Amino acid sequence: MRNYIGLIHKDADSDFGVAFPDFPGVITAGKSLDDARAMAEEALTLHIEGLAEDGEAIPEPSALEDVMADADNRTGVAILVSVKTEQPKAIRVNVTLPEDVLDQIDKYAEAHGFTRSGLLTQAAKRLIAEAA
């Protein structure tokens, strides 16, 4: 299991946001600190799975000292985010969506550092968890 640095940010009127210095553009959030930590593990795991699936290099985790040496990172609280090395096999599926919904999904995913698959997976898991 690998551990990466996640930086938690919280404004008075926002959820707890988590960004990953080793993966620029990958962000997630949660309503509570516990939710943010869980979402961070899931988002990072999905992103790394996507990189591996696409044959892209996965960076080595940075040292805390290196992350905090960047002045832009000092406003966040550093946490270790574990990436599970054994994940269920990803299965490619074909779904049909209205074009406007797919456009909204893609725009949201791009703006928030997700892949389309990662966003749909997180949304489905969150919806299922809320129903439970």
Automatic annotation (TrEMBL):
Signal peptide: none
Gene3D superfamilies: 3.30.160.250, Met repressor-like
HicB-like antitoxin of toxin-antitoxin system domain boundaries: 4-124
Biological process per Gene Ontology, one example term: regulation of DNA-templated transcription
Organism listed in the record: Bradyrhizobium centrolobii
Protein name from the UniProt record: CopG family transcriptional regulator
Pfam families from the UniProt entry: HicB_lk_antitox
